[in-house]
C-alpha cells in the first residue's frame, strides 16, 4: 500500500503518491455517496472522537458524517476555549481521552502545532482538522479532489490563491499540496496579508488581482480571517472588496473555463461577490463541501487500515 502514515497531521509529511492514493479512494467514495451505497463495515467497531477547540460547522459535520457512513461510533466533544489556556491542560485532556481508548481522534485547535503535540501523547490515529495558521490537510485534499474532477488532472495547472494568505491554514496546506503535484501557484493579496518569506515556497506573488488572475485555471478565494487580526491589515472592507474581492470584471481575466473555489464560510461582498459564488457554471463551492465528506472517509479508512495493521504486528510481537 502506498499510504503509510499513522496520523494525518499535515500535507507537509505526505508523499505525492500518498496524496494520489488518498484521492483515488476518495473519488470512489464520492461516486458511491451519490449512489447511496453504504460502507458501514469499514470502521465498524472503531470509536471516533471529534474534539473541536475552535468553532466549526462544516468541518465537524463533515467528519461526523464521514465516520457514520463508514460505521464508526462517533462522539463529538465541544471544547471550551477557556480550558486550553495552559499547555498542561491540552496534554491532560489528551491523556484522559487516551484512557478512553479511541481509535480515531479528529482535532481542531486554535494554536499552530497543538495537534502534532497531542498526536505524540496518544495511541490512536490523529487527524488534524485545522491548527491555528499551520495546516488544514483535509481541506487541501478536498480542494485537490474538486480540482481534479473539474479539470481532469492535478498537475500543470495555473492556480491563484487570493486574499488573506497570512492567516490561512487553508492557503498553507494548499500551497504545499499543489506544489508537490507540480502546479504553478500565484498568491494574490495585499502585502499586509502576505506572510514573510513566502517566495521560498516557489510561488509567484501579486498584489493586483487583474495581473495575477491572467489566464489562471483555478481561482481559490480565502475568507478574511478577522478573528486572527488585531486591526490595521486592511483599510476597510469596502476598499478590500474593490481591490481584492472577486467579481465578474476581475474573473474575466482568468481562463474562460476557470473554476471558482472558497473553503467557506464566505463573507459575501467582502472577498467574493455573491453572484459569482452562486454561479453554477463557474463556482464549485458546493462541490468542495461534497468532496469533503468523501476525502474524510478515505483518510479515516486508510488510517484505520494502518492502525489495525500496527496493532496486529504488536500483538504478534507480544
Ligand atoms: C476554513 C478553516 O476553518 O480554516 N474553513 C473550513 O474549514 N471550512 C477556512 C476559514 O475559516 O476561513
Structure, described:
With 318 residues, the protein is an alpha/beta fold. It has eleven helices and nine strands. The strands form two sheets. It has a five-stranded parallel sheet with strand order 7-6-5-8-9. A four-stranded parallel sheet has the order 2-1-3-4. Strand 3, helix 4 and strand 4 form a beta-alpha-beta unit. Helix 1 packs across helix 5, helix 1 packs across helix 11 and helix 5 packs across helix 11. The longest helix has 33 residues. The mean pLDDT is 93. The structure holds N-carbamoyl-L-aspartate (NCD). N-carbamoyl-L-aspartate (NCD) binds next to helix 2 and helix 6.
Briefly summarize what is shown.
The chain is of the alpha/beta class. The protein has helices at 16-34, 58-69, 87-99, 114-119, 137-151, 169-180, 209-212, 237-244, 248-251, 274-278, 285-317; strands at residues 47-52, 73-78, 104-109, 125-131, 158-162, 184-188, 204-206, 218-221, 259-261. The protein is 41% helix and 14% strand.
Estimate what percentage of residues fall within beta strands. Answer: 5-15%
Please, how many helices?
11
Q: What ligands can be seen in this structure?
A: N-carbamoyl-L-aspartate
Query: What structural category do the secondary elements indicate?
Result: alpha/beta
Strand order of the largest sheet: 7-6-5-8-9
- SSE order, as H and E? HEHEHEHEHEHEEHEHHEHH
Amino acid at each position: 500500500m502506498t499510504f503509510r502514515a499513522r496520523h494525518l497531521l499535515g500535507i507537509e509529511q505526505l508523499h505525492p503518491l500518498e496524496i494520489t492514493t488518498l484521492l483515488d479512494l476518495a473519488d470512489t467514495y464520492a461516486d458511491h455517496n451519490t449512489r447511496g451505497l453504504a460502507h458501514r463495515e469499514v470502521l465498524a467497531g472503531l470509536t471516533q472522537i471529534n474534539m473541536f477547540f475552535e468553532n466549526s460547522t462544516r468541518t465537524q459535520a463533515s467528519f461526523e458524517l464521514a465516520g457514520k457512513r463508514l460505521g464508526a461510533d462517533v462522539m463529538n466533544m465541544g471544547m471550551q476555549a477557556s480550558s486550553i489556556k495552559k499547555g498542561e491542560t491540552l496534554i491532560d485532556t489528551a491523556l484522559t481521552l487516551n484512557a478512553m481508548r479511541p481509535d480515531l481522534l479528529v482535532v481542531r485547535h486554535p494554536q499552530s502545532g497543538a495537534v502534532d503535540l497531542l498526536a505524540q501523547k496518544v495511541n490512536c490515529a490523529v487527524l488534524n482538522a485545522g491548527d491555528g495558521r499551520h495546516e488544514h490537510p483535509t481541506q487541501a485534499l478536498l480542494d485537490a479532489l474538486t480540482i481534479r474532477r473539474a479539470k481532469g488532472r492535478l498537475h500543470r495547472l495555473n492556480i491563484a490563491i487570493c486574499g488573506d494568505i497570512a492567516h490561512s491554514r487553508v492557503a498553507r496546506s494548499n500551497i504545499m499540496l499543489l506544489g508537490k503535484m507540480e502546479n504553478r501557484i500565484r498568491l494574490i493579496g495585499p502585502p499586509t496579508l502576505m506572510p514573510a518569506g513566502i517566495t521560498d515556497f516557489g510561488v509567484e506573488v501579486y498584489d493586483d488581482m487583474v495581473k495575477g488572475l491572467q489566464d489562471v485555471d483555478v481561482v481559490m478565494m480565502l475568507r478574511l480571517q478577522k478573528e486572527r487580526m488585531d486591526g490595521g491589515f486592511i483599510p476597510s472592507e469596502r476598499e478590500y472588496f474593490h481591490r481584492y474581492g472577486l467579481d465578474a470584471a476581475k474573473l474575466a481575466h482568468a481562463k474562460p473555463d476557470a473554476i471558482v473555489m472558497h473553503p467557506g464560510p464566505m463573507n459575501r461582498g467582502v472577498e467574493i461577490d455573491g453572484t459569482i459564488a452562486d454561479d453554477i457554471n463557474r463556482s464549485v463551492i458546493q462541490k468542495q463541501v461534497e468532496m469533503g465528506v468523501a476525502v474524510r472517509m478515505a483518510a479515516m479508512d486508510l488510517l484505520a487500515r494502518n492502525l489495525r495493521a500496527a496493532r496486529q504486528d504488536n500483538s504478534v510481537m507480544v
